[in-house]
Structures are given as C-alpha cells and as structure tokens.
Amino acid sequence: MYKLIKKQGNARRGEFQTVHGTVQTPAFMNVGTSAAIKGGISSYDLKDLKCQVELCNTYHLHLRPGDDVIRDLGGLHKFMGWDRPILTDSGGFQVFSLSSLRKIEEEGVYFQSHIDGRRIFMGPEESMRIQSNLASTIAMAFDECIENPSTREYTARSIARTVRWLERCKKEMQRLNSLPETINKNQLLFGINQGSTFEDLRIEHMKQIADLDLDGYAIGGLAVGETAEEMYHIIEAVEPYMPVDKIRYLMGVGTPVNILEAVARGVDLFDCVMPSRNARHGHIFTWDGVINLINAKYQRDDRPIDEHCDCPVCRQHSRAYIRHLLKAGEMLGMRLAVMHNLYFYNTLMERIREALDNDTFDEFYQKYVPILGRRI
C-alpha cells in the first residue's frame, strides 16, 4: 500500500508498505539480475549500502537455476539471504532485448534461450507463475517493451495486446495468491504503461491500465533510444493520469540527473544497471560529478574516490589503490567500485527524501542537476 506523505511541486515523498517491509520513497532499486549484484556484492553488503529494494530478473532466473528450484528452496528471499522487498521484472524487456531470438503471438512470446538455444515460451500466465514461484514482493505484468522509434500502427496494436495481457496477469495472480502452496500470498502486481513516444497513445494506455486498480504503475519503454527531452516529455504527459494513491515506477532509468528530473515530475521508484555496470569499468559517480578512475592522473592520487562520501570504500581506500586493482583485473577493484556507486545512488535518494521532508527539494534540484552529470 502506498501512502503519499507530502508533495513539493510534482515531486512526491511517500511510503510503500509491503509484506517484506516499508520502502521510503523516492527510492532506487539495486539490480541483482540473477539474484546477485554483479561485482561480488552480497545481500549482507546491500544493507550497509542503504539498499531498500532489490530487483531480480524473471527470465534469467527461469533459465537458471530454474524458478522451480528456487520455489523448492523456499523462494527468492531465502535463496539469496535478503529479507527486504524484491521486485521481479516480468521477462517483457527480454522480448525487446532478444528481438532476434523471439516471435510474438497473442498467447505470448516464443523465445530461444540465449544460453543454450532451446525453445521456450512465456506469456502472461507463465510469467505470473514463474514470479509466484520466485515469491518476490512485487511482480511486474508481462508486456512488450516497444522499440523506439516504432510506427504508430505497430505501437497501437502492441499496447492493445499489452492491456489484454495485463488482464490475464491480474486474473492469474489472484488465482495463484489464493493457493495454499503459494509461498507469498501477498504478492503485489504492477502494470506497465507503454506507447513509444506517442503522447496520445501513452495517455490512453495509462487510462486503460489505471482502471484495473493495480498495486502500482510503471512507465516502461523509455531510455531505449529516445532523447532525454522526449523521455521527460512523456513522463509529464502521462503523470496526470497515474493514480495519485499508487506508487509510480520509471523502469530502467537512469543517471543521477535523470532521477532528479523524474522525481521532479512525480516518479517514486527507479532501477538501472548503470551504477554497477559503469563501476566495473571505472566510471564512478561522485558529488562533484563523474570520474573515470582508469585515467593515469589517478595513479598516485591518495584521496578517497569522493571526499564528500562516507561509504565503506571512501573511508578506507584511495583512488590510486582502486585504480591499480581495476587495471590489474583484480575482482576486488570491481567490488569496491560497485559498492561506492550503489552507496552513492542510495544516498542520493536519501538526500532527495530529506530535501522533500524539509521543503528544500527545488534548491537541491537546482544545485545538483548541473553538477551530477558533468565529467571531471
């Protein structure tokens, strides 16, 4: 259940209560695709890094170790040693990202596994059953992430099918949550708004899915080829039609500046692989901007990664040391860099919430939008 505490402009400060704990929003979900954050970060580390919610990937966990294996071991929380909320995506994004390996039909999508080439099928019911086996806190509805640019005709057909799929998801989840053997009988369902960059189609689709009275609503299909300005425009267009009393999630976004811009437009929840993926290549987020730790100028730099950061890495290690580890291919280098970036993102969200609590979000936004996107 989502509780809106206060607003400053369109920016929202809230709480989201789940069976696995309450999430303070706005919040960032750390992406653990295969039930782990890439870079050697454990569930226990995540608590020290201020993570509130972890996101796991339905498609990847279905392929290995298998959702039936995770169910038999007590569900995803027990499997990975994490007792806070988990959101599982539906597999819909893989419809988009594995375009050369799939065929979309009304009943669902036929895939070729990217691991061994075997033929698999996933539709709304299959996605809900997999996510029920995983026993995540939040299940995402099965949808098609539409490529940008797409034709208006294709987009209209796709979102009409996505609404039909969503109705099937809701019906199947209600059935699964009623079964005695279901691990998490309080699993929540989020619907996903699609429509490419067609403003009127986005609005119409949002109205249709809002009528289904789901637990939360996501904006999908952005940050996949359109400009940042187009993305912000779509959020502004859709936001007035999103239920005020339900949590709002912008999928797969993004940079610290993207997050500030989207919070200012009324978004509550975010996820992105960027902080962990970039960290593994030495791209580090700081309160002064973005640095590339691989650069030679850091070879003898004995300062912490970020002199304004109190994360475990900045308290103990120098830029020179972490650069050395990354250059030497030592796994510890990736681990420390990822730890810092995740801590930075979660602290950014914490500071956004504090600014909203103190009615100073506009000042915070004006100060950090020019800073956080610059490369040092």
UniProtKB/TrEMBL annotation:
One Pfam family named in its UniProt record = TGT
Positions of the tRNA-guanine(15) transglycosylase-like domain: 10-368
Residues noted as binding substrate in the record, renumbered to the chain: 89-93, 143, 194, 221
EC number, UniProt record: 2.4.2.29
Example GO molecular function: glycosyltransferase activity
Q: What is this protein called?
A: Queuine tRNA-ribosyltransferase
What's the catalysed reaction?
A: 7-aminomethyl-7-carbaguanine + guanosine(34) in tRNA = 7-aminomethyl-7-carbaguanosine(34) in tRNA + guanine
Stored NCBIfam families? Q_tRNA_tgt, tgt_general
Q: Where does Zn(2+) bind?
A: 309, 311, 314, 340
Q: Which InterPro entries match?
A: ArchSynthase1/Queuine_TRR (IPR050076), TGT (IPR004803), TGT-like_sf (IPR036511), tRNA_ribo_trans-like (IPR002616)
Alphabetical UniProt keywords? Glycosyltransferase, Metal-binding, Queuosine biosynthesis, Transferase, tRNA processing, Zinc
Cofactor binding note: Binds 1 zinc ion per subunit.
What family does the entry list? Belongs to the queuine tRNA-ribosyltransferase family.
The annotated region (RNA binding) lies at 252-258
The Swiss-Prot or TrEMBL record lists the needed cofactor(s) as: Zn(2+)
Does the record carry RNA-binding as a key word?
no
Q: In which pathway does it act?
A: tRNA modification; tRNA-queuosine biosynthesis
Quaternary structure, from the entry: Homodimer. Within each dimer, one monomer is responsible for RNA recognition and catalysis, while the other monomer binds to the replacement base PreQ1.
